[in-house]
Amino acid sequence: MVCGGFTCSKNCLCALNLLYTLVSLLLIGIAAWGIGFGLISSFRVVGVTIAVGVFLFLIALVGLIGAVKHHQVLLFFYMIILLLVFIVQFSVSCACLALNEEQQSQLLEVGWNNTNSAREDIERNLNCCGFRVFDPNETCFSDCFRSRQCQPCAPIIEEYSGMVLTFVGGIGLFFSFTEILGVWLTYRYRNQKDPRANPSAFL
């Protein structure tokens, strides 16, 4: 069977959804690992990571069932949801890659001021206190706070923020192209006829 045939389209779609399933389980596993080793204490960060993992798992499950059964309704909703996810993910990935150093710094400061639990994790793991300036009168959770000789967290975070945003944006772009591939495969697969089906059956 050539790659343009029914069986090849079905197998490619199944393989793509198995990849999404593995990625979703990996996201849930990373969140559980971060909690287990005490690296993440922020319920918001863990909740968002698990929610994204569960959402991706459900999408992959719908796509997998639709591909195996050649179910027109499931494949239609899978195609629409995947297209919406592609638009959002492509936009976010481009935004991550387009941020300059000043915009990254402003974004980090906004995040620092709005997440207390994540701030505690950063101070504890990076051994720093405060964002721009170290204030010995403020509460800090790092080990260096005992000696009152801490450096602010902003220079440490900004050193890696550009690399992290580039990595996240690149990964996001890669998966966004797999999503548009999934939309194209689904559209094509829906319009193909199963050669094993009864030609006299009502479709």
UniProtKB/TrEMBL annotation:
* Keywords, comma-separated and alphabetical: Membrane, Transmembrane, Transmembrane helix
Primary localization: membrane
UniProt keyword annotation of Nucleotide-binding present: no
Q: How does it sit in the membrane?
A: Multi-pass membrane protein
Q: Which residues cross the membrane?
A: 12-40, 46-68, 75-100, 164-187
GO cellular component annotations of the record = membrane
**Intracellular or extracellular location(s):** Membrane
One Pfam family matching this protein: Tetraspanin
Does this UniProt record's set of keywords contain Transmembrane helix?
yes
Q: Which PANTHER family match?
A: TETRASPANIN, TETRASPANIN-13
What is the recorded name of this protein? TSN13 protein
Q: Which organism is it from?
A: Corythaeola cristata (Great blue turaco)
